[in-house]
Amino acid sequence: MGFVQLLEVASMPVIQVLLVSALGAFMATQYFNNLLSPDFRKSLNKVVFFIFTPSLIFSSFAKSVSLQDMISWWFMPVNVGLTFLIGGILGWLLVKLLRPNLKVEGLIIAACSSGNMGNLPIVIIPAICDEKGGPFGARDVCRSNALSYASFSMALGGIFVWTYTFQTIRSSSLRFKALEAAEILKAPNKDLEGNVETPLLKGKDDENAVIEVLPSSYIEDSESQIVNEQDQSHESKKEKQSFFKRIIEVVTHLLAELISPPAISIFFGFLFGAVAWLRKLIIGDNAPFRVIQSTLELLGNGTIPCITLLLGGNLTAGLKSSSVKPLTLICIIITRLFLLPVIGLFIVKAAASYGFLPVDPLFQYTLVMQYAMPPAMNISTMAQLFDVGNEECSVILLWTYSAAAIALTAWSTFLLWLLSY
């Protein structure tokens, strides 16, 4: 295939994503009566998460994945882990070079390390199989395999996002809030007589907290006394509670990912695909319960358009803010969309040369594209959860996803050419 043909095959899925995302963004504005309002997006996201996505994953896995296939895919969890590890190191180096506000340090590291391993691969990778002249074989077989690879990628990405990325943003937010609190205590206020005074906030957890203005000398003595008492009686207890609290949070979110509807659907889809007599119950023209598979396929068809509409609607928040420096955005885009995929390409090619990967070139394509994906949308959820950097996160996601339209097309074209020979 010539370059123009490869470019056409690679660009069509990305253009489709752009068009549907643009429609979603337009539907989230007042010109469309806020059809995709924040509340509606939350509700639609729940439908996608609990109904559409599990249906798509189960129907794909049960139809195309066997026990031998799952064993041969052992490198994909390693590959996903490497994307987070290498991206995290690059993000950390970026923070050290740029020295940004502490408020966005965690967001930068998360944006560089945590790629969108689920939604975009499910949209883009199967769509490659729909184009004529693709290098991945027959359309039906290619699409079925692509959905299986993308579904497995989604499950793995969710586990890493809610462990590694969650802790990255959490620790950054705690450090930022501690610094913010310290600056508030140090900020002096002057009364009408010119005496220096410091605000003391009483009743921290009370909604009707009362602020008393006291002389700074009295405040200093009171603060030192309070600090000494807290250090003596609660320091060791707080450290232990904080440590166990972190462990409990990580385990809770990890378990939530493992028992989430997409993860459960992967397990049962793999079970029905690997066990012959279960497979014959729902797969095939003579299967007694084939209507179940047909119904799940019908529901699964709603996943891709809904996900893409939500993607466009969620990115509109980034248009309302300019709180991130252009240099920071450029560095994140270069790191996430260009530098990391180059490293990933060498890793995947080395793994293939040592025989670690299946023969299917689509599997190699999926592995490299995992490095090239823009940041995970769950980063925005975590920023809202810890109430830090919400606007900055929206800006980062908006511009990285805008740049990803070009980057994904370029990488897809290059990989199609590379895997065609």
TrEMBL record:
<feature type="transmembrane region" description="Helical">
    <location>
        <begin position="44"/>
        <end position="62"/>
    </location>
</feature>
<dbReference type="GO" id="GO:0140964">
    <property type="term" value="P:intracellular auxin homeostasis"/>
</dbReference>
<keyword id="KW-0927">Auxin signaling pathway</keyword>
<keyword id="KW-1133">Transmembrane helix</keyword>
<dbReference type="Pfam" id="PF03547">
    <property type="entry name" value="Mem_trans"/>
</dbReference>
<feature type="transmembrane region" description="Helical">
    <location>
        <begin position="74"/>
        <end position="95"/>
    </location>
</feature>
<feature type="transmembrane region" description="Helical">
    <location>
        <begin position="329"/>
        <end position="352"/>
    </location>
</feature>
<dbReference type="GO" id="GO:0010329">
    <property type="term" value="F:auxin efflux transmembrane transporter activity"/>
</dbReference>
<keyword id="KW-0812">Transmembrane</keyword>
<keyword id="KW-0256">Endoplasmic reticulum</keyword>
<feature type="transmembrane region" description="Helical">
    <location>
        <begin position="148"/>
        <end position="166"/>
    </location>
</feature>
<protein>
    <submittedName>
        <fullName>Auxin efflux carrier family protein</fullName>
    </submittedName>
</protein>
<dbReference type="InterPro" id="IPR004776">
    <property type="entry name" value="Mem_transp_PIN-like"/>
</dbReference>
<feature type="transmembrane region" description="Helical">
    <location>
        <begin position="12"/>
        <end position="32"/>
    </location>
</feature>
<keyword id="KW-0472">Membrane</keyword>
<comment type="similarity">
    <text>Belongs to the auxin efflux carrier (TC 2.A.69.2) family.</text>
</comment>
<keyword id="KW-0813">Transport</keyword>
<dbReference type="InterPro" id="IPR045033">
    <property type="entry name" value="PILS1/3/4/5/7"/>
</dbReference>
<dbReference type="GO" id="GO:0009734">
    <property type="term" value="P:auxin-activated signaling pathway"/>
</dbReference>
<feature type="transmembrane region" description="Helical">
    <location>
        <begin position="298"/>
        <end position="317"/>
    </location>
</feature>
<feature type="transmembrane region" description="Helical">
    <location>
        <begin position="254"/>
        <end position="278"/>
    </location>
</feature>
<dbReference type="GO" id="GO:0005789">
    <property type="term" value="C:endoplasmic reticulum membrane"/>
</dbReference>
<comment type="function">
    <text>Involved in cellular auxin homeostasis by regulating auxin metabolism. Regulates intracellular auxin accumulation at the endoplasmic reticulum and thus auxin availability for nuclear auxin signaling.</text>
</comment>
<feature type="transmembrane region" description="Helical">
    <location>
        <begin position="107"/>
        <end position="128"/>
    </location>
</feature>
<feature type="transmembrane region" description="Helical">
    <location>
        <begin position="396"/>
        <end position="419"/>
    </location>
</feature>
<dbReference type="GO" id="GO:0080162">
    <property type="term" value="P:endoplasmic reticulum to cytosol auxin transport"/>
</dbReference>
